[in-house]
């Protein structure tokens, strides 16, 4: 895993909304793993006796992680649960973007057709809205 990409994605994921802004999650980063854990010391038992809000808040953080990784070209793949883990603890894998060949030359800005239909021809002016 690319450490800098992962740290930046986790920082974005920590901006996820949480119930009462408790941010009840904890990230554990290993050399080849990343774990999202519920931080039960931030669980508000008086307003959330069953822990539903805690789980929903962690889910929002996981969704933000997935989005942050996707913005960087990575994917977060659900690998399912193993027999030794409960079904409420799915396993996820971070998949780096595929290697893409570099273009041999930079693309010209006028390479495509314009509104007039002729490559490189000036476009007609856009009319201003009459408000």
Give your account of this protein's structure.
The structure is a single chain. With 131 residues, the protein is of the alpha+beta class. The protein has helices at residues 3-13, 52-71; strands spanning 25-29, 34-38, 75-80, 91-95. A hairpin with a 4-residue loop joins strand 1 (25-29) and strand 2 (34-38). The chain is globular, with a radius of gyration of 23 Å. The protein has one domain (3-95): NADH Oxidase, CATH 3.40.109. The model has no long low-confidence stretch (mean pLDDT 78). The N and C termini lie far apart (53 Å). The protein has two helices and four strands. InterPro entries: Nitroreductase-like. It comes from Actinokineospora soli.
Quick rundown:
By secondary structure, this protein is α+β, with helices and mostly antiparallel strands. It is built from 2 helices and 4 strands.
The overall strand count is: 4
CATH architecture: 3-Layer(aba) Sandwich
Q: What's the rounded overall pLDDT mean? A: 78
CATH topology: NADH Oxidase
SSE series: HEEHEE
Name the poorly predicted regions: none
CA-based gyration radius: 23 Å
Beta-strand fraction estimate: 15-25%
Q: List the strand order in the largest sheet.
A: 1-2
CATH class wording: Alpha Beta
């Amino acid at each position: 895993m690319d450490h800098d990409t992962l740290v930046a994605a986790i920082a974005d994921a920590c901006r996820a909304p949480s119930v009462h802004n408790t941010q009840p999650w904890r990230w554990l980063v290993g050399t080849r793993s990343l774990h999202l854990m519920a931080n039960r010391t931030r669980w508000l038992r008086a307003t959330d006796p069953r822990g539903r809000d805690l789980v929903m808040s962690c889910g929002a953080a996981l969704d933000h992680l997935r989005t942050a990784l996707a913005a960087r070209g990575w994917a977060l793949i659900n690998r399912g649960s193993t027999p030794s883990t409960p079904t409420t603890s799915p396993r996820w894998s971070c998949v780096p973007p595929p290697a893409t060949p570099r273009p041999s030359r930079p693309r010209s800005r006028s390479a495509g057709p314009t509104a007039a239909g002729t490559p490189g021809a000036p476009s007609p002016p856009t009319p201003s809205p009459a408000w």
